[in-house]
Design a protein that fits this description.
about 15% helix; 7-stranded antiparallel sheet; about 45% strand; mainly beta
């Protein structure tokens, strides 16, 4: 019989803080702590992995970007009130990489994030 995987520490909709590597060539060794929203949780080995969407403070000409208002996260808040959720910036992370939860995104916005990410994955480009 396989190893039992414990219950996940984080759930769909949790806004978590995670180290995120910078993509600019001059900053490849720098890591910033960034918020992200949990879109899915799945077992991996003896633990859990999480599918996350990045939250940033920078607006961008992105047809999928979603502006977040201060009341969109319950149980906590982002450090910068003007923040944007980027459904096209998806990544996976193991549970040990996530530093902590900082709140929970409204359920309708979690669903909209998943819908927009799915749109990109279905079409392949926008």
């Amino acid at each position: 019989m396989g190893a039992t995987v414990s219950s996940p520490m984080y759930r769909r909709g949790d806004v978590v803080l995670i180290p995120f590597p910078m993509s600019a060539p001059s900053l490849t060794r720098d890591v910033k702590r960034r918020p992200a929203v949990v879109l899915a949780v799945y077992p991996h080995g003896n633990g859990r992995d999480y599918l996350l969407a990045l939250i940033t403070t920078k607006a961008a000409p992105d047809p999928l970007i979603m502006a977040l208002a201060p009341g969109d996260i319950t149980g906590g808040a982002l450090s910068v009130p003007a923040s944007y959720l980027r459904p096209a910036y998806l990544f996976t992370a193991g549970e040990t990489l996530i530093e902590r939860s900082i709140g929970v995104l409204r359920a309708d916005l979690v669903g909209e994030t998943a819908r927009r990410a799915s749109l990109l994955l279905t079409k392949g480009e926008l």
